[in-house]
Amino acid sequence: MPKSKKPFKKAYLEITSQCNLDCSFCPKTSRPPKFITVEQFDYLLGQVQPLTNFVYLHLMGEPLLHPQLDRLLELCAQRGLKVSLTTNGTLLEPHIPLLRRIGVSAVNLSLDSFDRETFARVTGRDLLPPVLAALDGLLEFAKTTKTPLVLATTGYTPEQVAQIGAAALEVPIFRSANMSLGINVLLELVKKAASVLGDSYDIEI
Looking at the DSSP assignment, which residues form a beta bridge with residue 173? Predict the structure, then answer.
């Protein structure tokens, strides 16, 4: 496949500033929650189409909340634009048929914990059960459509790790405990400090 001559790899589009979680780590915004209209979205697609082949539905809001998500995805398909989206997973299960029908290029699942109490404390909502219910469907969706899957969380049970590993034999899956650049830099610095200081050095935190 010839390399695209368009100047950008992807364009990030925010289709809503509304979210159904209230995560403690998420930056707050003073903007009122709202959804982009189909007309506004189509206009933006016309602006980015000469610049990229890939749109990424991810910024402040939860894209699966958009009441006309199906129409937005159809517009992307009509323009030949590939779509990736990031979701907190709480609304994923009922949307899997839509994502499968449209054929999104990537679904990134942002999940804070598999522990229900921790999830509720971090996100401000007790919505872990529907996320877990979507895991089987998400893996099946990825395998059926050959869509790469990104899982960025900790707390998987051995059974879930095995399930993800089995799916990874059929479709690309990227699994990371943390996607934060700062956290990963800190982890590398701690490893380096530990190797320099040695076992005899007492560190108190």
Answer: 149
pLDDT digits over 148-162, tens only? 877 766 666 788 788
Using one digit for the tens of pLDDT, what is the confidence trace for 77-135?
999 999 999 898 889 888 988 888 887 888 887 877 777 898 899 889 998 888 877 77
Can you spell out the DSSP letters for 43-80? HHHHHHTTT-SEEEE-SSS-GGG-TTHHHHHHHHHHTT
| Alpha-carbon gap, residue 62 to 18, rounded angstroms | 6
Q: Tokens 């650049």 belong to which residue?
A: 181
Entry pTM: 0.71
Per-residue pLDDT tens over the stretch 6-25:
889 999 999 999 999 988 87
- At 154 the pLDDT is 63
Based on DSSP, count helices (H) and strands (E) in the chain, helices before strands: 7, 6
Q: Is the dihedral of CA 173, 89, 74, 84 positive or negative?
A: negative
Pick from 76, 138, 83: nearest CA to 110: 138
Does an H or E element contain 86, and which? Answer: strand 82-87
Q: How far apart are CA 102 and CA 7, in angstroms?
A: 26
